[in-house]
Write a structure and sequence with these properties.
Keywords: Nucleus, Phosphoprotein. By secondary structure, the chain is an alpha+beta fold. It contains six helices and eight strands, in the order αβββαβαβββααβα. A hairpin with a 2-residue loop joins strand 2 and strand 3.
Length: 242
């Protein structure tokens, strides 16, 4: 691998141009801080596209009935700009993924227990948004799919790796990773500021992004998406940026 251990923060990071928050390597997670992601101030008023119009096109599939929340889609944060962690550049953009053999790589370096559990819940063939984080303009740039389900993250045992964990044992590894493969670029870059504008509007009127984890648990580098959340965000690629 030309870029070992360079895709992830240590489990969680808000989108700020500053060093990542360090997560204690214990059985108790460090509580997430309620801090805003770096973004421009969202446009005043509600979502211009109107989620209600979008919802009408989806109700024929669901009958308009709410179902139990299940997660079949994901959002994976990765840093596209160079940043040294213990002397290693942790940069890994979607272009770096595309440059990998078969456009596939392992998603290593997650050191947050909730994010790890989300990794372990991923199933073969499920899709995820590739999200550029901790950079000048955070946002969604593409789509990847899970091509290998969770298995032990080898970087936890590598003393030269910035994500080495001396407390983890090979007979009972603490940390897991999955393999992901590039699917496609989104038709346009979908910035955090635009998603946030919809989130704020949906909080007021009950739209699909009202509880999106990108804003309720923003420091997690691995985040689940409901079908409604995934479909709505994906629909934004068809719209002209505001």
């Amino acid at each position: 691998m030309p870029w070992p251990s360079r895709k992830r923060d240590k489990g969680a990071v808000a989108d700020k141009k500053e060093p990542d928050a360090k997560i204690a390597k214990t059985e108790e997670e460090t509580p997430d801080k309620e801090e805003e992601e770096k973004s421009t101030k969202p446009p005043a008023g509600s979502s211009k596209s109107g989620w209600k119009n979008w919802k009408k096109t989806k109700e024929s599939d669901s009958g308009g009935e709410e179902s139990k929340i299940t997660y079949r889609h994901w959002l994976l944060k990765s840093e596209p700009e160079s940043r040294l962690e213990k002397g290693v550049d942790v940069k890994f953009s979607i272009d770096d993924l595309k440059a990998q053999p078969n456009q596939t790589t392992f998603w290593d370096g997650v050191r947050n227990y909730q994010a790890r559990n989300f990794l372990r819940a991923m199933k073969l063939g499920q899709q995820a948004f590739f999200y550029h984080s901790n950079c000048k303009e955070p946002g969604i740039v593409g789509i990847v799919k899970i091509v290998k389900e969770a298995y032990p993250d080898h970087t936890q045992f590598d003393q030269k790796d910035p994500h080495y964990d001396s407390s983890s044992r090979k007979e009972n590894p603490k940390w897991s990773m999955v393999d992901v493969q590039f699917v496609r670029m989104t038709k346009r870059f979908i910035p955090l500021s635009e998603i946030k504008a919809h989130h704020l509007a949906h909080k007021a009127d009950g739209g699909p992004l009202k509880n999106m984890m990108l804003f309720t648990r923003q420091r997690l580098s691995i985040q689940p998406l409901t079908q409604e959340e995934f479909d709505f965000v994906l629909s934004l690629e068809e719209e002209k940026p505001h």
